[in-house]
Design goal:
The chain is mostly helical and about 240 residues long. It has one domain. Helix content is about 70%, strand content about 5%. It has helices at about 5-25, 50-70, 70-95, 105-115, 115-145, 150-180, 190-220, and strands at about 30-40, 40-50. A two-stranded antiparallel ribbon has the order 1-2. Helix 2 packs parallel to helix 7 and helix 6 (about 150-180) packs antiparallel against helix 7 (about 190-220).
Length: about 240
């Protein structure tokens, strides 16, 4: 099997695995201490557990877009969106099914795996908008630079799409959904701003760190048959 075919399977698997993991870990809130206090964020960044896994989906989709093109990347993203509903259906069918006497506590099981309406609404809308934006910006930058500056389209597409994702998720999950649906207490604006800024700074850092890995994947898959990307930190 060629490297391109193997890499296609591996990137799809990474994308789906990270996406499913993000959905299942979204309910846990992480508290990441910072060495110094940063503006409205303070000395601790609060973010959903899904943030780390979700960042991998952008890495996988950018590698996929670079290697296999815009159309295939859009198919990957939108099939992933549909699979979110399959995941939710499977999880909730298991939650609602009767439990055996030897089972783990059904209430705890539902609490851990049954994401709230707020989280589901925020994550689904944020996903479909930000991931499609990522693909569009990635290829718009590729066209503008005539295939050069892979580092620019990786960072540019991920930085803007992660901003969209963060704002949509936080505003819907912690403000709009609780207010409109009455499914919880909406957070104060100051707390929402701190959540958005803190999460985005960490996501932007991940985008910067993963750029050399995008180059490594593309270089490996190209296997000397296509034009190899330049050093990610060298101005072309």
């Amino acid at each position: 099997m060629s490297r391109r075919r193997t890499a296609r399977t591996a990137l799809v698997a990474l994308f789906v695995t990270a996406l499913v993991t993000a959905q299942l870990t979204a309910s846990k809130v992480l508290a990441v201490p910072l060495p110094v206090s940063v503006g409205p964020v303070g000395s601790t960044v609060f973010l959903p557990g899904a943030a780390l896994a979700y960042a991998l989906t952008f890495f996988a989709s950018d590698c996929y877009a670079e290697l296999y093109g815009k159309r295939d990347a859009q198919v990957l993203v939108n099939v992933g969106f549909v699979m979110n509903f399959v995941l939710l259906a499977l999880v909730w069918s298991t939650i609602l099914a009767p439990a055996a006497p030897t089972s783990v506590d059904p209430g705890q099981f539902a609490t851990v795996l049954g994401a709230s309406t707020n989280i589901v609404a925020g994550s689904l809308l944020a996903y479909v908008v930000s991931q499609n934006w990522d693909v569009l910006v990635f290829h718009a930058l590729r066209d503008r630079t005539e295939g050069s500056y892979l580092w620019l389209r990786n960072i540019g597409s991920t930085a803007t799409s992660q901003a969209i994702d963060t704002v949509l998720f936080v505003s819907i999950a912690f403000f709009a959904a609780p207010t409109l649906l009455g499914t919880g207490q909406a957070l104060p604006v100051s707390v929402l701003v701190a959540l958005v800024v803190g999460q985005y700074l960490l996501k932007l850092l991940i985008a910067l760190v993963d750029t050399p890995f995008v180059y490594a994947v593309v270089r490996f898959v190209s296997d000397g048959t296509d034009e190899e990307p330049a050093n990610p930190w060298t101005v072309e």
